[in-house]
């Protein structure tokens, strides 16, 4: 897909979802990091239900890191994969407290060195907490980018690289939200609603 066509795709999706934004709830870099870790294979709605009280009771890395593994597991069990997530969150909190004075680092390299933080999570934190021009690739972005024709790659890392090349600088974070919203509301994995999709008229390459 050409850069010009990619811009038209984003324009159509912006008209369809003018309110597109992050649906996870967070108010600072620490909350962004923890909520994003919890969101793996879990809906944003359920994560928000869990973090509403979690962040109230444990508002920083030192407080959350003081919990035992069983205590944290009990608080996040509804998010799924709770044992692994609890272990990673506790280890990350300890590292944030000991190495960064409780603050979340603002570089991809430092973020990805934290337990439980991969390329996607690091990208979300950089984008949402620090305002970087990132386009993290989750399952929705990966699926839609390949299906629409914005990218053609078999790993999230390769898709992100291709999206950065085709989507104009300054539009990548917005494109991330647009693709997620479209994936959740129209272009589902099993049965995309092509009949009501604004990209169906020559903009989508329909690589289903």
Notes on the structure:
The protein has 208 residues and is mainly alpha-helical. The protein is built from 11 helices and no strands. The protein is elongated and about 55 Å long.
SSE class: mainly alpha
Total beta-strand segments: 0
Shape type: elongated
Beta-strand residue fraction: under 5%
Q: What would you report as the Rg, rounded to the nearest angstrom?
A: 18 Å
- Contiguous low-pLDDT stretches (5 residues minimum) are none
Give the proportion of residues in helices. Answer: 55-70%
Task: Supply the number of helical segments.
Answer: 11
What's the helix-strand series?
HHHHHHHHHHH
Major sheet summary line: none
Average predicted confidence as pLDDT: 95
**How far is the N terminus from the C terminus?**
16 Å
Quick gist of this model?
The chain has 208 residues and is mostly helical. It has helices spanning 3-16, 29-38, 44-57, 61-65, 69-76, 82-100, 108-112, 119-130, 139-148, 156-166, 172-185. It is elongated, with a radius of gyration of 18 Å.
Any key phrases for this structure?
single chain; elongated
Helices and strands in order:
Elements: H1 3-16, H2 29-38, H3 44-57, H4 61-65, H5 69-76, H6 82-100, H7 108-112, H8 119-130, H9 139-148, H10 156-166, H11 172-185
């Amino acid at each position: 897909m050409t850069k010009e066509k990619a811009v038209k795709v984003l324009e159509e999706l912006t008209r369809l979802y003018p309110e597109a934004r992050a649906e996870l709830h967070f108010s600072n870099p620490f909350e962004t990091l923890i909520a994003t870790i919890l969101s793996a294979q879990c809906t944003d709605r359920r994560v928000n239900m869990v973090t509403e009280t979690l962040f109230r009771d444990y508002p920083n890395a030192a407080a959350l890191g003081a919990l035992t593994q069983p205590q944290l597991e009990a608080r996040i069990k509804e998010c799924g994969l709770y044992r692994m997530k609890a272990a990673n969150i506790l280890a990350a909190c300890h590292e944030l407290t000991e190495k960064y004075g409780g603050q979340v680092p603002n570089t991809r390299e430092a973020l990805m060195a934290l337990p439980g933080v991969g390329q996607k999570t690091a990208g979300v934190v950089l984008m949402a907490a620090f305002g970087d021009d990132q386009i993290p690739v989750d399952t929705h972005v990966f699926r839609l980018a390949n299906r629409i024709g914005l990218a053609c790659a078999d790993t999230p890392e390769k898709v992100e690289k291709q999206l950065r090349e085709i989507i104009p600088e300054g539009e990548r974070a917005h494109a991330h939200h647009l693709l997620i919203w479209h994936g959740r509301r129209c272009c589902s994995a099993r049965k995309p609603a092509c009949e009501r999709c604004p990209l169906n008229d020559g903009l989508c390459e329909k690589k289903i």
